[in-house]
From TrEMBL:
Residues 283-305, 442-464 are annotated as: Disordered. Residues 47-379 form the Apiosidase-like catalytic domain. Residues 451-464 have a biased composition (Basic and acidic residues). The lineage of its organism: Bacteria, Pseudomonadati, Bacteroidota, Flavobacteriia, Flavobacteriales. PANTHER family: ENDOGLUCANASE, LMO1036 PROTEIN. This is Putative collagen-binding domain of a collagenase. Residues 382-471 form the Putative collagen-binding domain.
Length: 474
């Protein structure tokens, strides 16, 4: 990247360009990129505290994609391509690490910090999104955030990944200054959501995580804040009653039933996390922010294990949302790490390039979940397992959600659905099958809304032959 100053003088130059959170108005040039707005509505918690809504009271179904290393590994042009693809596929939230590591640098070689200290971001004066002159790490973040905003996409940003805090390299006061820097820089951006934490335990270095969360919320009271926890954990384990935590996030993780060595042993039953959060007080929305990624080994670390597929990511999506979650985050192994031809080796056995994996089946199919949920009155939806008269376990498990005048029931493997009728309005109901694989709806017929009724999904019973039974008053 072209510079207006010699690279060899960078170290000396940085001493005059480090942002100081102690005296922001005096020492820090206001970043030009941070004040551009495009009218994307701010997000808030819905009136019943179960869901997300826009500031103009419209339903917002969180459909996230995991792009952890976007700021580090993609150029401007590549970032534009990625964001445009995700917009076209119906995603509306992009989850990204700001600092994957304390020596983080972007594709142009720009370092984020001086001396790997989070309180000392490297910023340069006179920066502009329209010019590649004097373009630093934070300008690149600005460029991507602004580009996402123009496309109607929200950026869920992890300030610093948990492993950096776990090693003791982030002091509490440095964390406060860094969080204040981020909050000030992006205070005018409507499309920012803050994800405190980052694949970590909230009962370790709790003061750091509370400091970041409180500082972000105090300085950005109009932006949503949550905590991204360790696998098979949930933010509510530690922070549910904290005032800075607007909604919960859980990471159901990448392990099979037989690989789960946690105390809970939920295995693949991510609906259990959603149900637990749904029943907590005070009421807050919840989202599975990291289920099993498409294209990653079952168990995560052994490439000799089978890889998770589109069937699995659909199952996690419908299970958690029907259990009460306010949305769902999809992930793909190649995309979350933005694996490129110039990378020597992919993590977790990945051999795919991110550009190829963009169009894997799961990424295409996620939009059908969002489209289905937005077809019906949104804010009155509740999970209701009392609909199901013949419940199964594991892959036979069926999950149900409903409003006053509709009901949705999900089967992962095409097992017959037997319902207790009379849970929605009407003497008779119209029944339809909805395919999570292509978003197509097909009529079944009209049925009495009393007693028990059994519905036989199309096709044979097998994993991945998933269907949603849709009931509405006839």
């Amino acid at each position: 990247m072209t510079r207006t100053y010699p690279k060899l003088l960078l170290a000396a130059f940085l001493a005059f360009t480090v942002f100081s959170c102690k005296d922001k108005k005096k020492d820090a040039p206001a970043p030009e990129a941070a004040v551009e707005t495009t009218g994307i509505p701010r997000l808030k918690i819905s009136g019943n505290h179960r869901f997300f809504a826009t500031e103009d009271e419209k339903p917002f179904f969180w459909l996230g994609d995991t792009a952890w290393l976007l700021f580090n590994k993609l150029s401007r042009e590549e970032a534009d391509r990625y964001l445009e693809d995700r917009k076209a596929k119906g995603f509306n939230v992009i989850q990204v690490m700001v600092l994957h590591s304390l020596d983080a640098a972007n594709v142009y070689g720009d370092s984020a910090l001086v001396g790997q200290n989070v309180s000392k971001p490297v910023v340069t004066p006179g920066n502009s999104l329209d010019s590649k002159e004097e373009y630093d790490f934070w300008d690149h973040v600005d460029y991507v955030v602004s580009g996402a905003e123009k496309k109607g996409l929200y950026m869920a940003l992890v300030p610093v990944w948990g492993s950096n805090v776990k090693t003791g390299k982030v002091a509490v006061e440095d964390a406060r200054k860094y969080a204040a820097f981020l909050a000030d820089r992006y205070k005018d951006k409507n499309n920012i959501i803050w994800l405190d934490g980052g694949d970590t335990f909230g009962n370790e270095h709790t003061e750091v995580w509370n400091t970041i969360g409180k500082t972000l919320k105090e300085n950005n009271p109009d932006k949503l804040v949550t905590f991204h926890p360790r696998g098979r954990m949930q933010s509510s384990d530690w922070f549910h009653e904290e005032s800075w935590l607007d909604f919960n996030m859980f990471q159901s993780g990448h392990r099979r039933y037989d690989q789960d060595d946690s105390e809970r042993k939920y295995g693949e039953d991510n609906w259990r996390y959603a149900a637990a959060d749904y029943n907590r007080k005070p009421v807050k929305p919840t989202v599975d922010g990291e289920p099993s990624y498409e294209g990653i080994p079952q168990g995560l670390h052994d490439p000799e294990e089978p890889f998770w597929t589109d069937n699995d990511v659909r199952r996690y999506g419908y299970w958690s949302v029907f259990a009460g979650a306010a949305g769902y985050t999809y992930g793909h192994s190649a995309v979350m790490q933005m694996h490129r031809p110039e990378d020597q080796e992919g993590a977790y056995g990945n051999t795919r390039y991110w550009t190829d994996a963009l169009n894997d089946p799961g990424a295409i199919q996620m939009q059908y979940l969002k489209e289905l949920m937005l077809q019906f009155p949104y804010f009155g939806r509740v999970p209701d397992q009392s609909l199901i008269a013949d419940q199964g376990e594991r892959y036979d498990y069926q999950t149900a959600t409903r409003g006053e005048d509709y009901a949705l029931v999900y089967t992962y493997n095409g097992r017959n659905i037997t319902l207790n009728m009379g849970k929605i309005k009407g003497d008779k109901v119209k029944a339809r099958w909805y395919s999570p694989r292509d978003g197509q709806m097909q009529d079944i017929g009209t049925f009495d809304n009393t007693g028990k009724q059994e519905f036989d999904p199309p096709g044979k019973k097998e994993d991945g032959n998933d269907w949603v039974l849709v009931l509405t008053p006839a």
